[in-house]
Amino acid sequence: MLMEEQELAIRCARRDRQAREELFRRYSPRLFALCLRYTRDKDEADDLLQDAFIKVFDRMGRFTWQGDGSLFRWMARLTLNLFFDKARRKRLFRETGIGPLEETLPEPDYQETLQVPSEKLKAMIEGLPERYRTVFQLYCIDHLSHKDIASLLGIQERTSSADLSRAKALLARQIKQYLHENR
User: Fold this and answer.
1) 6 in Cβ contact with 65 (< 8 Å)
2) How distant, in Å, are the alpha carbons of 116, 145, 178 from that of 110?
């Protein structure tokens, strides 16, 4: 029988082996998907996941339950912090080298976006410059605020907002081009 999230966290904080095994079984697939989305490499994602669970188990006593889903959100935040700390050390978030966009295209509407195959859209997102892609994923997929993104990446909030705008503009351009070429 599955333990409730709050009970699971309390038992993990007490170093209960059964609870820790359940925590890993329950959350490792979702955390691995998160790791893979940011590392883009299975081996690196495995390493990050392992490091994340070590940190989760080490810091479980600091977790404060705030309702259903708060345990995963807390674990995801620890995992992302690990990734971005490592990325900063590797200097992955240096300037992108892309100059100002010549024109700002309107974002494609919902119907236009539906005309782009999901694999193609995913490839477009993957092809964004790393910092733009990261901000786009954190904001649009992981639903973090610009304040949280800025804190994670060590940038200012307005930089996060500007990077998101540029990511959307680049995607809009790619979607419009794809639709033009495939009519």
Assistant:
1) yes
2) 10, 23, 15
CA dihedral for 113, 137, 163, 48, sign (positive or negative) = negative
Q: What is the pLDDT of residues 120-171, one digit of tens each?
A: 988 999 999 988 999 999 999 888 899 988 888 888 999 999 999 999 989 9
Cα–Cα distance between 75 and 144 in angstroms, integer? 14
> Which domains does the chain possess?
5-90 (1.10.1740.10), 110-181 (1.10.10.10)
Contact predicate 128/136, CB 8 Å:
yes
Residue 10, class by beta-carbon neighbours within 10 Å (0-12 exposed, 13-18 middle, 19+ buried)? Answer: middle
DSSP state of 61: G
Amino acid letter for position 46: D
What DSSP line would sit under 105-149, residue for residue?
Answer: PPPPPHHHHHTS-HHHHHHHHHTS-HHHHHHHIIIIIS---HHHH
